[in-house]
Design brief:
alpha/beta; eight-stranded mixed beta sheet; five-stranded mixed barrel; about 45% helix; elongated; disordered N terminus
């Protein structure tokens, strides 16, 4: 009986210890993990490199299960096509994206900022001035401004409206007024109490806060996260680009891509005009590798798109060297070459263009067209310049072949007499006066030393007979 009581007491003690252990573990198991903030720094021109930063950063943030992506932005603008791709990626990102404008978000930077779910600005920062300009700073035609106005409006509209209830009245108000976004592009827009006609809108931080284009003023990234996002304790992971990202961004610049297309076409043309394999073909191959390689690595250029280009080049070569004239083969080859260039720039799956916008197609055609037209123009110009006064005068044949191979007329020797210096059977050497000439016997063999007479001059030859 005593042993039974001891066993019961031991069992009770074990149960109490087990419950105590479980109660001690419970808080650790139910503790919520710290929120993850993924930071992407874009403090440079908006271009293909910045586009790669954002694309890779958003992909990593989603893979890590980040709670929010914070873009640390400071830019004076950049390429419209890159900004358009970046704003699309931000609008459709499954991870919410906010931006901290550290001083500047001008032009293309304003479009990128406007796509973010929330905008925070440093005191003294600016956002706006999104008019499309050329490389010299001059305004582009209204065709381009119209497209930019539309993008700014649609980006502002994408954030929807707030429901405002005042007493019994319910109204809906844009979270970001599309009209204000359009005024950042078009200086003809008038908004009462904000901007008059003739000026392009640019907000300071305080003005942006007042008109709903800023959700808070902060002095640092930590200030944004702690005081505006409400994450007192958090994990911060920062996207760190590699040198390969920089290289791919440089090679995918539209201007450089047009130049590479120029080199590809020009190299093929001049290689076909010269015998053997030389420098033009090497330059063309290197340019083709630099054009397609970064697009292939990024998943834009597929194997079949590169194959289209190669087959097109082969068809053009067959048209030049094998098939006479210029017909279906040559035209088909040129179409395949251009098609390969264009499709390599588009993010399409085979011939499905679900995720490709009209703007993407237009920019791809523009890039390829510029390179192709410039390439042909330069080929024609260089072809006309090769020669005595051209750029390649040191390499070109400048001699006048007509003068080099001209033969003096010997028709004045017809009827004159001389002697055979060698045996003529039927050709040999004859002497007329004190000069030796090549002669051909018109009367059979003539022995050496025999007297001869010139009977005619024909086909640059003297014909003689024995006297």
């Amino acid at each position: 009986m005593k042993l039974l009581h001891v066993s019961v007491r031991r069992a009770v003690c074990r149960a109490i210890c087990l419950l105590a252990g479980l109660s001690g573990l419970a808080p650790a198991q139910s503790a919520t993990p710290q929120p993850l903030v993924y930071r992407i720094d874009i403090r440079k021109e908006i271009n293909r490199t910045a586009q790669l930063y954002l694309s890779r950063g958003l992909g990593e943030a989603q893979a890590l299960g980040a709670d929010v992506v914070l873009i640390h932005l400071n830019t004076y603008g950049g390429l419209l096509e890159s900004a358009d791709s970046m704003r699309t990626a931000i609008l459709y990102s499954p991870v919410p994206v906010v931006v901290f404008i550290d001083n500047n978000a001008a032009s293309a930077g304003a479009l990128v900022s406007l796509a973010c779910r929330r905008i925070f600005m440093r005191r003294g920062a600016n956002i706006g001035a999104a008019t499309v300009v050329d490389t010299g700073g001059g305004e582009m035609p209204d065709k381009y401004q119209s497209y930019m106005r539309s993008m700014m409006r649609s980006t502002a509209e994408a954030h929807g409206k707030d429901t405002v209830i005042q007493g019994r009245d319910t109204t809906f108000r844009w979270k970001r007024d599309p009209r204000i976004a359009e005024a950042m592009v078009d200086n003809r827009i008038v908004i009462p109490n904000l901007i008059d006609s003739g000026r392009t809108l640019t907000f300071t931080a305080e003005e942006a806060l007042r008109w709903g284009y800023c959700d808070g003023i902060a002095e640092s990234v930590d200030d944004v996260i702690a005081n505006h996002l409400g994450y007192r304790e958090y994990r911060l992971i920062r996207y760190r680009p590699s040198w390969l990202d920089e290289l791919k961004g440089f090679l995918m610049n539209p201007v450089l891509q047009s130049l590479l297309i120029l080199l590809i076409i020009g190299g093929i043309y001049f290689e076909l005009q010269t015998p053997g394999v030389g420098f033009p073909l090497a330059a063309s191959v290197i340019a083709a590798v630099l054009y397609f390689a970064p697009l292939y690595v990024e998943g834009l250029a597929a194997n079949w798109e590169i194959l289209l280009f190669v087959v097109g080049v082969i068809l053009v070569a067959l048209e030049i060297f094998v098939i006479p004239g210029f017909g279906v083969t040559g035209i088909g080859g040129m179409v395949l070459v251009v098609t390969g260039f264009v499709l390599a720039l588009l993010n399409n799956a085979t011939f499905r263009f679900d995720g490709v916008s009209g703007g993407d197609v237009g920019r791809a055609f523009l890039t390829v067209s510029v390179g192709t037209v410039l390439g042909m123009a330069i080929m024609i110009w260089l072809s006309n310049r090769i020669g005595a006064r051209g750029l390649f005068r040191g390499m070109a044949l400048n001699a006048d072949l007509q003068e080099a191979v001209s033969v003096p007329s010997l028709s004045g020797l017809v009827g004159r007499e001389g002697r055979a210096v060698t045996v003529l059977r039927p050709s040999g050497k004859v002497m007329i006066g004190d000069e030796w000439y090549d002669g051909i016997s018109a009367s059979g063999f003539i022995e050496k030393g025999a007297d001869i007479r010139v009977v005619r001059f024909e086909n640059a030859q003297l014909y003689v007979e024995e006297r």
